[in-house]
Amino acid sequence: MPEAEGAQPGMHAGDLDSLRDAAHDRAVLSEARVVLARRLGVPPGEALQHLIWLARDLDMSLVEAASLLVKDGVSGPVGAVLAGRRAPRAEGGAAERRAAVSQIEDVLRRVTAEDTAGDSEILAEVPEDPVARAVLDATLDSSAHLVPVRGENGEVTDFLFAELNDVARDMFGRGREDLKGQRLLQTDPGAVQSGLFDEYVRVLETGTNFERSSIPYTTAQRGLSRSSRTSVRCVKVPTGVCLTWRYHHAEDRTVRRLERVERLALMGFGEWDLATGEAEWTPQMLANYGLGPDEVPPSPHDLPKVVAEDDVPLVEEAVQTMFSRREPVEAEHRVTGPDGEPRHLWVFAEPVLGDNGLPVSINIVSQDITRRRGVERALAETRRQMLKQQERMAQERRVAVTLRRAILPDEDEIERLPGLTTAIRSLAAESTARIGGDWFATRVMADGNALFAIGDAAGHGLPAAAAMARSRNGLLGLACTGESPGRLVGWLNELVGTMDPPATGTAIVAEFDPRHRVLEWTCAGHPPPILVRDGDAEPMEVVRDPMLGAMPGWEYSTITTPLQRGDVVFLYTDGLVERRDADLEERIARLTRILRDCSTRPDLMVDEVLARMEHDRAADDTTLFVVRVQ
Predict the structure, then answer these.
(1) Which of 60, 137, 277, 388 could form a cystine bridge with 64, CB 3.0-4.6 A?
(2) Is the pTM of the predicted complex or chain greater than 0.85?
């Protein structure tokens, strides 16, 4: 008989079930994450975190919570929720900066080619200049004493650094030791492109001071460019000019970081000056209230006019508290956004008191929490629907338990099989969510033979219980034909394959002839039975026929095994040997070792095996069926 298509040598039904369960769990988690992300309007990673919290809140496993989410009635839309903000684009002006750098590099190539052999003589001829020295000593910022370099016609072509103060640093971090004696344009060619060089020459020639605050400035050196806002001051001294400058790197970096924090957190800051009536709000603060950059912020007493009507009393009370009790306040209120949709703001405000104890200004911080409130609403609705679905599933589980009890006879009600002593233990999973499709069946045939079977319908819950009932009852009905086990299982395979909904399962069906002590049996993807004989135990040789419902039209083989008086055949379902943290073959080998040194009396054997196998009662049903030849 050929092996089942797609089956691998050495792979049992338990291996396939484990792989199938693991793949099913991953698929359910993936689908649930997508469903929840769509409902909440959040990225899949954030949706997974919310799914974990929902599972924890509902006291269920992650896979169980995911299964509830993907059931009908839970995956529908809840309402629009603001999606995550897009990443900002790089700051503008890149093209202009590249053009400026290109011009600066042209200047640098030109001035680098000039002859500087006479620079040392120019500096040697510069007399002592106490005015320049006083300027350098009195300046807290970077400062330099520049002397002119003149061309053949007397025009100023460049400046030399005659002296610098100790704190002087150019945009590339060079100080006094690096710059003294160097030409200005060779170290800072951006002075030409920005027009500052012409201003320095004008100061030298006219004596008129020059000053600029916070101008954009770019320069280049050795293939590198630097940009910063810069403040510059230039004054004439007897031997040239003194230049003072400050780069606003740190201030700009701080401002950019604050702006990014406000944008990322949707948080804005505002300040009301109660003496002048002026208000200063950051761009994000204006955006939170739906105001444009040029619009005037409302005064504290006008703030209730811009909030939602239902929230006006709350905001009025907060404003009154600040002015009467002079205490900080915090509150949540809604405003109408530019798109006409309500926007939720969480506001913190505090009065700033003067020497007389009266408020002189008010600081206010607002955060747009619309997305958070939308997610919370969607999560609350999702949780409500999951609870309803959980109740429906609990009802299904109760039905499954009732059906199992109704179909499977109690152990003391099992009919006596000729020539055999039997013992059965059928244990439902401790978790009702994991109740599966374990079943067993016995029948005394018309010819005096004994039919017994054990099986496991795939899955859990009511579908598995229904498939179990159909499989067991179908086999007992087919057994009336008196056909061989292989033929019976072939018909049972067709029956299982045509169930609605589709089902699969495993089974061992056996018929024992007590007169000749011969066992004829068939294995449909089930874990192999174990034969215990004369103190030894070994798994019985099986033909690897596929599980029920997997291969329509398959012809199942019938195995013939002669037995002896005192032989024990131990049958079991995968719940006894399967563990996610252990190899199935190792677990079957452990069961075999236990059977070698335990009692051969069937009822004692099942009790000892259950005590020593340490199987997971919560994960799956477990059924043991033991027959001993008399």
Answers:
(1) 60
(2) no
